[in-house]
Design goal:
This protein is an alpha+beta fold. It is built from 5 helices and 5 strands, in the order βαααββββαα. β3 and β4 form a beta hairpin.
C-alpha cells in the first residue's frame, strides 16, 4: 500500500429497496427517503439516499478492499448530487498518504448526475500475522486468504456488490 495506489471501482445499483432500507436501518424516517409523492412535493423528482447510507457504503468500499481486519479511524464525506433509484453509483479511491499501517484514502462516488459523495477515509490495516507485512489489498498477497482464515475464521467477501444485493433480498 503506497500513496498513489488506486482502489478498484465498485458499482452500486441504486434501487428503491436500497434507499428505503438504508433510511430505515439508520432510523432516518424523513419522508423524502421513502415516499415518492412527498419527495416530489418538496421539489425532488423521487426519493433519494440519505447521508448515513452513503457513509455506510463508503465504509464498506474501504473495508472490502483492505480486508476484515481494517479499522476505519475517520470518515469525512460531503454529499453532492443525489442518489436516485434507477441510477448507479461508482465508488473510486486513491491512497493519498501512508504512515505505518494507517492510510488516508480519497474517495469519490459518482452517478449519472455527477459526484454524489467526496471525502477521505483514514483506515488502519493491521499487519498479517504470518508475514508481518501490511497487505496491499485483499487478495494481492498470495497467502492473504489463508492468513485471514486462521486469524479471523473467515475469508473476506469480494467487493462485487454482493452484500448490497443480499440486503435487497436478491441472492
Amino acid at each position: 500500500m503506497r500513496a498513489g495506489d488506486a482502489l478498484p471501482p465498485l458499482e452500486i445499483e441504486i434501487t428503491r429497496t436500497l434507499v428505503v432500507a438504508g433510511a430505515i436501518a439508520s432510523r432516518d424516517y424523513q419522508d423524502v427517503h421513502h415516499d415518492a409523492e412527498a419527495a416530489r412535493q418538496k421539489g425532488s423528482p423521487d426519493i433519494f439516499m440519505n447521508i448515513l447510507t452513503t457513509n455506510g457504503l463508503v465504509g464498506r468500499y474501504i473495508t472490502d478492499h483492505f480486508g476484515p481486519g481494517a479499522v476505519l479511524r475517520r470518515v469525512a464525506i460531503r454529499l453532492g448530487a443525489p442518489n436516485y433509484p434507477g441510477d448507479t453509483m461508482v465508488l473510486t479511491g486513491v491512497v493519498e498518504d501512508v504512515r505505518g499501517d494507517t492510510a488516508t484514502v480519497r474517495v469519490v462516488g459518482a452517478n449519472g448526475l455527477g459526484r454524489h459523495v467526496t471525502g477521505t477515509v483514514t483506515v488502519t490495516v493491521p499487519r498479517w500475522p504470518k508475514t508481518g507485512t501490511v497487505p496491499k489489498a485483499v487478495g494481492s498477497v498470495p497467502e492473504a486468504a489463508d492468513t485471514v482464515s486462521e486469524a479471523a475464521g473467515t475469508v473476506p467477501e469480494a467487493a462485487d456488490g454482493g452484500a448490497v444485493r443480499r440486503a435487497e433480498g436478491r441472492s
